[in-house]
From TrEMBL:
The chain holds residues 1 to 297 of 485 of the full protein. It is found in: Cytoplasm. One of its GO terms (molecular function) is tRNA (guanine(37)-N1)-methyltransferase activity. The keyword Metal-binding does not apply. One of its GO terms (cellular component) is cytosol. The gene is trmD. It is an enzyme of class 2 (transferase). Belongs to the RNA methyltransferase TrmD family. Keywords: Cytoplasm, Methyltransferase, S-adenosyl-L-methionine, Transferase, tRNA processing. Residues 87-137 are annotated as: Disordered. Its main location: cytoplasm. Specifically methylates guanosine-37 in various tRNAs. This is tRNA (guanine-N(1)-)-methyltransferase. Homodimer. The keyword Nucleotide-binding does not apply.
Length: 297
């Protein structure tokens, strides 16, 4: 997987050479490259932002600088869109969302979508079908990044992250690249505000890359964990030896050697914990997947 990151603080990503991600780079599983957005400026001040049109506080990242950078990294020619290419308007956001439905799905280039069965499908990612680079913008006002997104993106061969700082980036940037047939995603990592996208990209990258086959030593360790699979529940509590420690005992069932009972105990604990801490996840469970003993709860 090729990973390009664009930021005004590319040094943030020096840590990508450490730990498991560093090992994965040595193994050739991933190749991470952080670029400095200011390398694509032409003025003496290397400015990347300007005041918001319509007024208000803060600064907004300029579209021209971003586009010169992204065109180069994506291998695209600059061009002016014709009226109608972005949901009936060159303007971003509300008009285009209303025209297309609020979605991260991109209109795909004809050359990339010759086979309609290969259409981008969040429900059923196909590791075999490579749909070209995916352009990802961290944005606190976007949809929430989830384990499902991480799983889908882990099958991609090229991810390009554009880190915004300050009050954000000109909303025409993602619209323009969608109209160019690029798959564009915008994600928030949670309901809180960070100073910029760098930390959010680090979080998303860690969630995505650890799912690449061969990245984690024991692949079993990532299939039972929280948020994973058909039925995302919080994980049950884990214990190790000694079974008796400072007056606290490991639940007796776990030392019984009865695997069916252990599985039942762990599932009950996961369900109870999830219902208490994340009732939204329990509500989202497919009732058909719950067994009779679950329903008795
Ligand atoms: Cl993606 N960016 C910023 N700046 N703040 C955030 C975020 C992203 N997700 C949550 N807060």
């Amino acid at each position: 997987m090729k990973i390009d990151i664009v930021s005004v603080f590319p040094e943030y990503f020096d840590v990508m050479n450490l730990s498991l991600l560093g090992k994965a780079q040595e193994k050739g599983l991933v190749e991470v490259k952080a670029h400095n957005l200011r390398d694509w400026t032409h003025d003496v001040h290397h400015s990347v932002d300007d005041t918001p049109v319509g007024g208000g506080a803060g600064m907004v990242m300029k579209p021209e600088v971003w586009a010169e950078c992204l065109d180069q990294l994506l291998g695209l020619e600059a061009r002016d869109l014709q009226a109608g290419e972005v949901g009936g308007a060159i303007h971003s956001s509300r008009e285009s969302r209303q025209a297309k439905g609020l979605t991260n799905a991109a209109p795909r280039l004809a050359s990339r979508s010759a086979d309609p069965s290969e259409a981008a499908d969040h429900e059923n990612p196909d590791p075999q079908s490579d749909q070209g680079p995916i352009l990802i913008f961290p944005n606190p006002s976007a949809q929430l990044f989830t384990q499902k997104d991480a799983t889908e993106l882990s099958h991609s061969s090229h991810l390009l992250f554009g880190c915004g700082r300050y009050e954000g980036y000109d909303a025409r940037i993602p619209d323009y690249y969608r109209a160019q047939g690029v798959q564009v995603r915008e994600y928030s990592i949670g309901d809180y505000v960070l100073n910029g996208g760098e930390v959010a990209v680090s979080v998303m990258l860690e969630a995505i890359t650890r799912l690449i086959p061969g990245f984690v030593g024991n692949p079993d360790s990532i299939v039972t964990e929280s948020y994973t699979g058909e039925e995302p529940l919080l994980e049950y509590s884990q214990y190790t030896r000694p079974t008796s420690w400072r007056g606290l005992e490991v639940p007796a069932i776990l030392t019984s050697g009865d695997h069916a009972k252990v599985d039942r105990y762990r599932r009950d604990e996961a369900l109870e914990r999830t219902a208490s801490i994340r009732p939204d996840l329990v509500q989202a469970l497919d009732c058909k997947r719950l067994d009779k003993k679950d329903k008795a709860k």
